[in-house]
Amino acid sequence: MSEGTYPSSLDDARRQLRARQGLGARYDSPNAPARELSWARLGAAYFARKLNELSDADLDAPSLVAGWSRRHVISRVGYQARALARLVEAARTGIPTRPYEELEQRSWEIEDGATLPARALRYLYDHAQIHLDVEWRDLDAQGWDRITTSDGIPPIVARETPWMRAQLIWLSAVDLDNGGSFADLPRDLHARLVEIYGQGGSAASLSGNAPAIARLHQVSQVP
Q: Looking at CB atoms within 10 Å, which of 8, 21, 31, 167 has the fewest?
């Protein structure tokens, strides 16, 4: 390879990569919240790894969330992705929406999802995560700053959705009670979660803080 074929800058490297990948490849908008998206996507991969370590029979075991099996945790993570995808789609189309048609929808979706056959429950997670990521990648610069909600729902700007996802999916990976640890979180995400939910600055303090984990699950603004 001749010297002239090497990229002269990071921007040149990105342009060359996009040229090789072709017109069908998707990329995040420059206005997208890159750090929060990274946290959410790393969390999705981590959750998937912990889920794949569980046998179908293991899904019936209790999670760290009181009264919930691992099935409930997986269902919650899958249906949250669908709710967030609806919000991001609203930002893309410019037509505000509701994350759920009814206030009770979130609760009964989780309960119904927990009864799915194991294969269907795993598919729910995989498909919903892919759909959400596609919606994020298809959102243009203006869309990231649009309010997505309507009908008296507290306003949620599209750029808030990766942070909502990052919080829930990392904590849910721990809630599976399958060896997931707060020590595995990206350092900057861990520091932010400790600041919001933890007591002290260590991974141990956060992972031992059950009220903080319960508090996250009760945050009303997170679909």
A: 8
What CATH number has the domain bearing residue 169? 1.20.120.450
Domain count, the chain: 1
Q: Which segments of the chain have a pLDDT < 70?
A: 1-25, 103, 151-152, 198-223
DSSP state of 62: B
Question: What are the DSSP calls for 156-203, one per residue?
Answer: -BGGGHHHHHHHHHHHHHHHT-SS--GGGS-HHHHHHHHHHH-SSSSH
Q: What domain range includes position 65? A: 49-217
Block residue for tokens 């002290």: 200
Alpha-carbon distances of 221 from 40, 84, 138, 217, rounded to whole Å: 17, 11, 24, 10
Q: What is the pTM of this model?
A: 0.81
Sign of CA dihedral 202, 205, 210, 214: negative
Q: Domain for residue 223, yes or no?
A: no
Kindly state the DSSP code that residue 23 receives in the 8-state scheme: T
How far the first Cα of the chain sits from its last, in Å, is: 51
Beta strands in the chain (DSSP E): none
